[in-house]
Amino acid sequence: FFRAEAIAEFLRLAHLNPARLLLFTFFGGILAGTLLLMLPAATTDRGGAAFIDALFTSTSAICVTGLAVKDTGTFFTGFGQVVILALVQIGGLGIITFSTLYTILLGRRLGWRQEAHVRDIMETQSVPKMYTLIVGIVTGTLLFELVGSIILTLRLLPEMGLLPAAKSAVFHCVSAFCNAGFSLFPDNLIRYAGDIWVNAVIMILITLGGIGFVVIDDIKSSMGGWNPFRIRWSRLTVHTRLVLITSFWLTII
User: Cβ atoms within 10 A of the Cβ of 222, count?
Assistant: First the structure.
């Protein structure tokens, strides 16, 4: 069922345009998350989440809103927290990005109709550019989250120990980069309100995830490397300039 050919054939038969494809995949992701969170293994009482609670949590996670009706750190087990984090990651990356990457990892390509749909959604001019952008989005996301997780693990290590610190760091860094707002702590991050390291890591990840990879890729191309002092502002697109200027002034204000 999950082979690339089967997915492509289903999409071809369904005649899904980009808008319907996005709608269908979002509903599918929400439903899958709901069913997983209802499993006994997902909650600490081994009874599984009630349907309405699981549905709300799954919808909130995949739509990266951060709203929760159950405390993520105490109500859900490690399995349930992994499900929530996976939904957040998929929602943050975008379901189309994730599903296209899945096809690439299988060594396949989408059909020409599906490639055209995804290219329209990604707003790229060519199919090779679309695939390059998708791979860049995923690898860049994982890289930023990894670096943030390492820094946060080192900060939390003295008070939690290695495994709890790493678990907390990964969860909060993924949540921050995807702008999701989920936390494993009952008081969210209030306990770290005066901590410069925790605040810095979370704020940087929120900002990088918020401006998006189209902007980050444009900035990287204009630098000719990774030296921020070599940014050629004249080569940035209007979209990138608008995002950077607006984000800067909104943050300052």
Answer: 16
What separation in angstroms does the CA of 233 have from each of 113, 196, 228, 252? Answer: 36, 31, 11, 21
What pLDDT score does 66 carry?
85
- Counting other chains too, the contacts that 143-151 makes at CB distance below 8 Å and 24 or more residues apart are 144/177, 144/205, 144/208, 144/209, 145/170, 145/173, 145/174, 145/177, 145/205, 148/173, 148/176, 148/177, 148/201, 148/204, 148/205, 149/173, 151/197, 151/201
User: What are the distances in angstroms from CA 196 to CA 183, 186, 203?
Assistant: 18, 21, 10
Q: How far apart are CA 234 and CA 222, in angstroms?
A: 9
Query: pLDDT tens digits, residue range 99-122?
Result: 555 555 545 555 555 555 555 555
Q: Report the candidate in 127, 26, 52, 39 with the shortest Cα–Cα distance to residue 82.
A: 39
CA–CA separation, 64 and 14 (whole Å): 28
Query: What gap in Å lies between CA 20 and CA 96, rounded to an integer?
Result: 12
- Give the other-Cβ count within 10 Å of 252's Cβ: 6
pLDDT at 121: 52
The residue ranges of the chain whose pLDDT is under 50 are: 1-2, 13, 106
- Rounded CA-CA distance 84/88 in Å is 6
* Per-residue model confidence (pLDDT) at position 22: 63
The 8-class DSSP code of residue 192 comes to G
